[in-house]
Each structure stands twice: as C-alpha cells, then as structure tokens.
Amino acid sequence: MESPITAKAALLQALVQGEGYGLDLIERVRKRTHGRVALGQGSVYPALRDLENEGLVKSYEADALPERGGRPRRYYKLTASGQRAALADTRAVASLFAILTPGTT
Amino acid sequence: VIRLRILWAKVRLWRAVRWFRTPVVAGGDVAVNVRTGVVVDERYSATDVSPVPEVPFFLRREGMFFLIFAGVLTWVFLQSRARQRGLRRELAAARSATVFAWLEVLFPPRVTREEIGDALELIHRIATDPTCRRPHAMIYAKMVSTVFWVVVNSLRQIISSVLGKKSE
C-alpha cells in the first residue's frame, strides 16, 4: 500500500519533535507510524533538500564521526515558517479525520 | 548440574523399580529370558512371565552421554557460525567503505557526505552489533542501493542546479 502522506509532510512532523539527521528521521517516522510510513533513501534526502530550499528547515553539519568514515552528520531543524507549516498540516489532517469519523462534527 | 542430578536420580529410581518388577520365577531350573519374556524351555511355557520394560535410550547412561556430546557439539557449531557471520559482516562493511570512498570522488560532496555517511553509520551498526542476526548480504544490498540513490540524487541535484529549478 502507498504511504498515506508525503515524505515532506512526514519529515516536517518528525522534526517537530526536535532536530535530527537523515537516518534518525527515517527511524522516527517509522516508529511513530508503527511501520506504516517507511521513508526510503530515494525520497528522504531530496525532500530534506527541497524543504531547506523552501526555507522550512535549516541544516548544519556536526562533528565528524569515525563510524561514518570521518564524515559529519547533517542535522536539520525547523525554522519558524517550518513550524507554522507543520502545525497547518496537523490541523488539516485532524480536521479531515474529524469530518470522516462518524458522530463527530 | 541440577538437571543432570535430577536426571540421574530418575535413572536410579527407574532401575530400582525395574529390579522390583523383575519376575521371580521359582521352581529351580527355569530357562526364561526375564527381559524379553521368552520361555526358552517348552516345559515352562505356561509360566506367566511379563517382559521387563526397557529403559528409554535418553535415560540410559550412553543416552545421557550422547545428549551432552550433542549439546557441546551444537554449542561449538553455533559459536563458530556466529563468529563467521560477524567476520563476513565486517568484511562487507570494509568493502562498502572502499566503494563509497570512490563514489565520493565522483559526486557532489553535499550529497555524498550526507547519504554515504548515513549509509555507513547503518552498516556500522549492523556489522558491530553482536545481537544482530542480519546476514552480510544485507550490507551488500544496502551498499548497492546507496550507490544507486547517490547517483540518482546527484544527477537530480546537478540537473536542478543547471536548470535553476528545485528537484522534484
């Protein structure tokens, strides 16, 4: 079955919890959705770069780590507009489910 | 050790029961095999002799030795398999690092540092975790998929930078 949300939306929601790097964000999304949304390498990094280009997230490189072959981790965190976008996404999805759930107005 | 002692106590109990159950065929010269109940001499064919039950193999001494020996062999085999699996995973991780090092030369650093770094971190976790039971083939699969996506994402970035558009 296809993922119910886009990679960008999933990453924004994962970043609401705090800053993180690619592998960490993939794990976060997988755990929070109980495996329903599994982001792949092909979608996460382009989505993160797009979010950065749109000004919704900003990134920085941390210290180099030996287990990464001396490469640094690139951490992403939400900007103010990213937080607004994440909140707007949450409200939109919540209102959609409120409409679809019987007995709620 | 406690289990072995319990097992040994069971064997001794079984032997005692067997001794008590041994039919006593009185009357002097009786040619009866008390273990099988077969009357050898026809004169005593009417004698009621019930065969003594056999002790199960794994309760006998040789059965217990066999069990211990099989257990030790299995343990040694599993240890050796685990060690081999760990070595294969470490070898796969080292080969992946070499391939990634070549890849880093050819493609944009922004893409390679991030994606290859994350892939190497995951591979390192798989290779060094002693509780991990994933085969070394997983590491090679991860290496191949990383190479593929690094090439695709690099091309995407190059094309988008050339065209001045964001990658989709």
Mean pLDDT of chain B: 80
What portion of residues of chain A is helical? 40-55%
Query: End-to-end span of chain B in angstroms?
Result: 66 Å
Number of helices of chain A: 4
Cα-atom Rg of chain B, whole angstroms? 35 Å
Q: How would you sum up the major sheet of chain B?
A: none
Can you write the helix and strand succession of chain A as a string?
HHHEEH
Largest interface: A-B, 21 and 26 residues
H/E element sequence of chain B: HHHH
Report the count of strand segments of chain A: 2
Number of strands of chain B: 0
Most strands sheet of chain A: 2 strands, antiparallel
Q: Which regions of chain A have little confidence, pLDDT < 50, spanning 5+ residues? A: none
Report the sheet-strand fraction of chain A. 15-25%
Quaternary structure type: heterodimer
Describe the structure.
The complex is a heterodimer of chains A (105) and B (168). Chain A is of the alpha+beta class. Helices cover 52% and strands 16% of the residues of chain A. Chain A has 4 helices and 2 strands, in the order H-H-H-E-E-H. In chain A, strands 1-2 form a two-stranded antiparallel sheet. In chain A, helix 1 (7-16) packs across helix 2 (22-32). The two termini of chain A are 29 Å apart. Chain B is 68% helix and 0% strand. Chain B has 4 helices and no strands. The A-B interface holds A 21-23, 40-42, 45-46, 49-50, 53-54, 61, 65, 67-69, 71-74 and B 97, 100-101, 111, 113-122, 124-125, 145-146, 149, 152-153, 156-157, 166-168.
